[in-house]
Task: inverse folding
C-alpha cells in the first residue's frame, strides 16, 4: 500500500543525487512511498515499475543499481527475502503511528516489532525478533480498523496513509477542532453537541406606523418617503420627538409640507404660524429658494384697496 511521505528541500540540493538521471531521482522518491515503516520493500523491479512508472519506458532495474551504487539504497537477500532498504529512512521520515510493522527483515535477518498502545498506536518501545522465531505478523501488530479509514491517531506530525479519507492538503482540515461546551463536552467527544440558539431578530421598524395623531396619515407617509429619498430615514426616536414638536402646533400638516417643499431634513414648527401668518424662511445655511408667501386679506389692510 502506498503511503504519504515527506520530502525536504535538501533532496534537490544533494550533489551526489544530482549526478543521477531525472528518472532515477524520481524512482528514489517513489521508493519512499512504497517502503514500509522501516524503509524496506520487496526487491521486485517489475512490480515497482508497474506502481511507479506504468506509462513510461524506464528500466527500474538499472535505476535501482544506480541508486545502490551511490549509497542511497541497499539491496540484499536474507532468509529467502529479497529486500530493498532505503538508507537513513527513519532519519528523514516519520511514519504514521498506526502504520503496520515491517514484515521484511533487516540485513541480519531481524524484524522490528513495535510495542503498541490502545488503538494500535506505537508507544516508542520496540524489540528485534529474528525472522525465524516469529510469524510475519502478530495479532497486535496494527489496528485492524486502520484500512477502513478509522481515525485512531491525533498527531499532526505523523504521516497519513494516502488511502485514508481523512487526508487533506489543508492541515486545519486533518484534525477536527475540540468540542465546545466545557468539561462535559470534552469528556464525551463522540456525543453530538447542541447548536447554539439564535437570538430572535428584532422586528423591522416602519416609520409610517408611527404617524402622530395630529398629522394626516397621507402627509406623514409623504414625509417618511421624503426622508428615505434624502437618505435620512426616520428612526423611532426621531418619530417620537417630531410627534411631540407637532402636537401643540395648530397646523402640523403645513409644517411637514413646508419641509418637504424646501427639501429640509427636519421640521420647523416656528416657520408656520396661525392661518394667514405663515413665514416661509429656510433655516440658516439652507440654499432652498422656496418661499411661502403670507395670504393677504382685506381685513389686514382696512384703509387700503387691494
Result:
Amino acid at each position: 500500500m502506498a503511503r504519504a511521505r515527506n520530502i525536504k528541500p535538501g533532496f534537490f540540493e544533494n550533489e551526489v543525487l544530482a549526478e543521477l538521471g531525472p528518472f532515477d531521482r524520481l524512482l528514489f522518491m517513489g521508493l519512499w512511498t512504497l517502503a514500509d515503516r522501516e524503509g524496506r520493500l520487496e526487491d521486485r523491479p517489475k512490480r515497482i515499475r508497474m506502481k511507479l512508472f506504468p506509462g513510461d519506458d524506464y528500466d527500474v532495474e538499472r535505476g535501482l543499481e544506480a541508486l545502490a551504487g551511490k549509497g542511497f539504497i541497499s539491496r540484499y537477500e536474507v532468509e529467502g527475502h529479497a529486500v530493498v532498504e532505503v538508507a537513513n529512512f527513519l532519519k528523514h521520515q516519520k511514519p504514521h503511528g498506526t502504520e503496520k510493522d515491517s514484515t521484511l527483515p533487516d540485513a541480519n535477518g531481524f524484524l522490528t516489532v513495535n510495542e503498541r498502545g490502545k488503538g494500535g498506536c506505537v508507544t516508542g518501545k520496540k524489540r528485534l525478533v529474528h525472522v525465524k522465531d516469529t510469524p510475519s505478523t502478530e495479532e497486535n501488530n496494527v489496528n485492524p480498523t486502520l484500512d477502513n479509514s478509522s481515525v485512531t491517531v491525533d498527531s499532526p506530525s505523523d504521516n497519513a496513509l494516502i488511502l485514508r479519507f481523512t487526508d487533506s492538503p489543508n492541515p486545519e482540515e486533518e484534525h477536527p477542532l475540540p468540542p465546545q461546551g466545557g468539561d462535559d463536552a470534552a469528556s464525551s467527544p463522540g456525543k453530538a453537541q447542541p447548536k447554539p440558539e439564535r437570538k430572535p431578530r428584532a422586528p423591522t421598524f416602519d416609520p409610517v406606523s408611527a404617524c402622530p395623531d395630529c398629522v394626516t396619515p397621507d402627509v406623514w407617509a409623504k414625509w417618511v418617503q421624503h426622508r428615505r429619498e434624502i437618505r435620512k430615514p426616520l428612526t423611532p426616536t426621531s418619530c417620537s420627538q417630531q410627534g411631540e414638536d407637532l402636537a401643540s402646533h395648530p397646523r402640523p400638516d403645513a409644517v411637514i409640507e413646508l419641509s418637504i417643499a424646501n427639501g429640509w431634513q427636519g421640521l420647523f414648527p416656528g416657520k408656520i404660524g396661525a392661518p394667514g401668518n405663515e413665514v416661509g424662511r429656510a433655516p440658516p445655511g439652507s440654499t432652498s429658494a422656496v418661499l411661502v408667501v403670507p395670504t393677504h386679506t382685506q381685513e389686514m389692510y382696512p384703509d387700503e384697496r387691494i
